[in-house]
From TrEMBL:
Record membrane topology: Peripheral membrane protein
Keywords: Golgi apparatus, Lipid-binding, Membrane
Name the record gives this protein: GPP34 family phosphoprotein
Lineage, opening ranks: Bacteria, Bacillati, Actinomycetota, Actinomycetes, Pseudonocardiales
Chain segments annotated as transmembrane: none
Cited Pfam families: GPP34 (PF05719)
Gene3D superfamilies linked to this entry: yeast vps74-n-term truncation variant domain like
Amino acid sequence: MSDSLPARAYFLACDPGGGPISRRSNAALLVRAAAVTDLVLRGNLRDQRGHAEPTDAAPTGDLLLDDLLADVRAHSPASWRASLRRGKNDTLQSLETQLSAAGLLEEGSSAVLHRRVFLPSDPTRVRDAHAQLDHALTAPLSEVDAPTAALAALAAASGAGMSRSDARHHADRLAELEKLAGPVVPALRKAVAGRRAARIAAFSGGSGG
């Protein structure tokens, strides 16, 4: 579980200094997209005319992934984008519960409002996630496996774990990595763009424009 793609994505979204995840809504989309992508790479989901279709492959044995697979199956047929947006916060919370139970996260409180946050118990996992990202962006493409390529492409699309400036700087390489990542990355990009447009519309409406 700690080496699953959603777990790796979670640690990538954490503050590099060992702090909690930032931009929680973006991180939730990243984790959900990483979990869906993990199922694609394992052969439990496939693309069927732009929809996420469960296959007859055996369950993964990972509670988070198998719960997500059951959710996709229950709502099939559904577009990849709908599969990402539905239940993303529940997926994030479930992952935090699992990582905490495994001793990989510990509870703390935020400096502002003293809200409960989760901190990596071992900052090495955060450093490892960023090292994997650097490897995906700089190593020969033949040396980058599909999960690591997906991690980089999803981070860029979600806005969690990679800055926009870095994503622009590595745009050509990310386009190559996306080819290895499966059908989820374009859907994630659309989901993030949709959220951004909704926020802009809400702000414009609230300002009386």
